[in-house]
Amino acid sequence: MAVPNKKVDDYITMSADFAKPILWHIMELVHKACPDVEETFKWSFPFFMYKGGNLCHMAAFKHHCSFGFWLESKMKDPNKILRRGEEREGMGHLGKLTSVKDFPSDKIIIAYIKEAMALIDKGEKLNKATPKSKTPLKIPAYFKTALSKNKKALNTFENFTYSQKKEYVTWVKEAKTETTRDSRLKTAIQWMSEGKIRNWKYLKC
């Protein structure tokens, strides 16, 4: 028996006008293929669960929608509809959907949903990716010198993760002119002296 979630309905209702028929169409196909589907929310967008496992998901953006399968990497894709590798656009597996006409036939989508269900029935799980070794971060001498002159900034930088350090270094290094570089470096040192990461402005309160 299906387990609906009002948040999913609200998500669709609040989406852009072009997106609503797309999302309702996805919802209809998922429920038709999987009568026992459970609607939920993960990572701020609608997810469909089956027997406790992630089945598929959908999302609406400013100009397109997406639809994807959690176990896509294990699906056979006989109709060659799944965008994989370099062909993949965004987080979905059917490309950027701007209309219901962008979908393959209902029969094909339902067959793919049932294949995803069968994988869950078999107990299939996503393979954990092997962590890639990080390339040593090259910090320019002028960056090190500026840090050495500000103890608070230096302490913040040393306690940053690899990614947080890289964001600052890359931002400064990619400046087109020396004037811009010096301005960014000054700003970077000021922000780090205040304990801030590079993109602190975008943090949600």
Short overview:
The protein is α+β, with helices and mostly antiparallel strands and 205 residues long. It has helices spanning 6-13, 19-33, 106-121, 141-148, 151-158, 162-173, 178-193; strands at 38-42, 45-50, 53-60, 65-69.
How would you sum up this structure, described in words?
The protein is of the alpha+beta class. The protein has 2 domains: 116 residues, Alpha-Beta Complex (Aspartate Aminotransferase, domain 1), CATH 3.90.1150; 62 residues, no CATH class. Helices cover 40% and strands 12% of the residues. A 4-stranded antiparallel sheet has the order 1-2-3-4. β2 and β3 form a beta hairpin. The two termini are 38 Å apart. The model has no long low-confidence stretch (mean pLDDT 91).
Taking the alpha carbons of the first and last residues, their distance comes to: 38 Å
CATH topology of the largest domain: Aspartate Aminotransferase, domain 1
Structural class: alpha+beta
Mean pLDDT over the residues? 91
What's the total helix number?
A: 7
- Quaternary class: single chain
Task: Specify the biggest β-sheet.
Answer: 4 strands, antiparallel
| Helical content band | 40-55%
- For this structure, what is the CATH class of the largest domain? Alpha Beta
The H-and-E topology, N to C, reads as HHEEEEHHHHH
Strand order, sheet with most strands: 1-2-3-4
Any idea what the CATH architecture of the largest domain is?
A: Alpha-Beta Complex
What is the β-strand count? 4
Count of structural domains: 2
Q: What is the CA-atom radius of gyration, in angstroms?
A: 23 Å
Shape estimate? elongated
- State which percent range the strand residues make up: 5-15%
Low-pLDDT regions: none
